[in-house]
Amino acid sequence: MEYVYAALMLHSSGKEVSEEGIKTILSAAGVAPDEVRIKALVSALEGVNIEEVLSKAPSVAVAAAPAAAAPASGAKAAAEAEETKEDKEEAEESGIEGLGALFG
After folding, report:
1. What pTM was estimated for this model as a whole?
2. Residue range(s) defining the domain that contains residue 43
């Protein structure tokens, strides 16, 4: 993951995502750079529009939304429990019907 972070740091600073740049960032962070992983990442990112990919990624604000909806979670949990109970009853009924077909 630190390799991807290094590439994102280079991109966000406006620098070219290169093997040397990733190696420099990893070394500065105290991570022993693995040449093979660096080469693989740089070759995988060739021709990729990082800005476009980032614009399509879900934002951090989306992750905060469930925390804001926490007060309504009690009612939601009760509804889910009711649905689970109904699903369980339906499954039992269909299982009984299936057994009847074996002996019918």
Report:
1. 0.54
2. 2-56
